[in-house]
Amino acid sequence: MTLKVILRYIVLPLLAISLIVFLVFRKPIIQSLTFDHHFDRMVQHYGRVAIVDFGEKIVAMGQDAEEPLIEKVESPRTTDVEKRLAMLLLGMIQSEKAESILLRNLEASDADLRLGAVQGLKYMMKPEYVSRIGALTGDPVELIRENVAAALGQVYSPESIQILQHIVRNERVRTIWYRAWQSLRHIRPVNGVVTEKFRINKDLQIMPADEENSEVLFTYYFVKVHQGGEDMIFNLTWSDWQKLKIGDRLIKESLTSDFTILSPEEETA
Q1: How many helices (H) and strands (E) does the chain have?
Q2: Per-residue pLDDT tens over the stretch 205-230
Q3: Helices (H), ranges, 45-110
Q4: Which of 7, 77, 173, 225 is the most exposed place for a label (fewest CB within 10 A)?
Q5: Is the pLDDT of residue 18 over 70?
């Protein structure tokens, strides 16, 4: 068989078929190659700031990234770190198909899998997830407990408030304790009069009112508000705390951190 015949009847038809296949499937092929590149780079940069850039590029793919991410979570060939990152991204793209996968992994024996499940669900929280996520308030891994506190701050329900209040009463790791207070600040509504202002130091102790604030970054700001016939404690940012005076009315809707402050004069105007 001559070279000319080989080229005409074998090579050229194969090239033509390959071109047709590529043209028909070029979008899935390109998407797959793009996803693999970004995900591999994300894993390589695990633990570094650069991981965010590659994660954002996968999130920008939207639902085109859903199946590849689910495959990463379910595959026995991927590492636990890869599964964790895939679950985080599934939450960020709001994958309803991955809901049962994330909920199942809340009970995984591996900490990376539990962490990925909590981090993913944080972006798609629903009231029905609260008890499942709240079950991890006693997890031995601090980063998981911190993400639990953050996730609970995304949904307003009596149960989420109850669990967050349990955390602030019992948690002694300062970052987790404060994350729970931030979540309570975000989800709880307030409309009441300020009766007390106080600060808490890095040892989680109330500071005397006249004590010099020498460790600003490790000081937490609180007020007591009389609301609905009872006194409630609210955590504030330093700037809001500075503006407030005893007797002012503090107003905020649920699931926002934007406070309105009214002085007694403004209330009666």
Answers
A1: 13, 5
A2: 999 988 887 777 789 999 999 998 99
A3: 51-60, 66-74, 80-92, 99-105
A4: 77
A5: no
